[in-house]
């Protein structure tokens, strides 16, 4: 039987659950930058919206569904952080669509962008002559980063969460032996001790895990 008190109670529980989940998993889903953040928002909204007006679903069942979804989110976030290939599969990776003034059609198709989409993104970024573009990159959230000729290099992390990104190393035209030597110079023996590291203008900038510093 439908009652407004039941709807109100479920709304309160849903509100509290969303607040707790955001604080536990991080603020990324407030301004989604990845497929994972978007998915979390969509499904959670669907769960709460689909349950609050359904009197056949009890409060206990509602709580169990919310807890199962929270568990799935937390486990997935943990795995994507610690398993590099899984993180790339879930969130994708930046794709270069223009390099040194040349359109990379294969990469545009890989990013599921039609010629019209690419033209729109370039115009939105203020690009009207791709010959002036050193590199244009479609980010994980679909936005376009443009680097014009004569500007510095785009910074990308070569190490994230204690794992090397081989694609970035390849883009830098470096190898893991070089990376290990650079870390040694900064008295870092293991890549797993590195929370985040980027290479730009000939310098490797490293941030270590606080607990391991």
TrEMBL record:
Cell compartments where the protein resides: Cell membrane
Transmembrane domains' residue ranges: 7-26, 46-72
Domain YetF C-terminal: 82-199
Membrane as UniProt keyword: yes
Membrane topology category: Multi-pass membrane protein
Record-level GO cellular component terms: plasma membrane
Residues in YetF-like N-terminal transmembrane domain copies: 4-79
InterPro entries in UniProt: DUF421, UPF0702_alpha/beta_dom_sf, YetF_N
Keyword terms, alphabetized: Cell membrane, Membrane, Transmembrane, Transmembrane helix
Residue ranges the record marks as coiled coil: none
Family: Belongs to the UPF0702 family.
Protein name: DUF421 domain-containing protein
Organism from which the protein derives: Lentilactobacillus kisonensis F0435
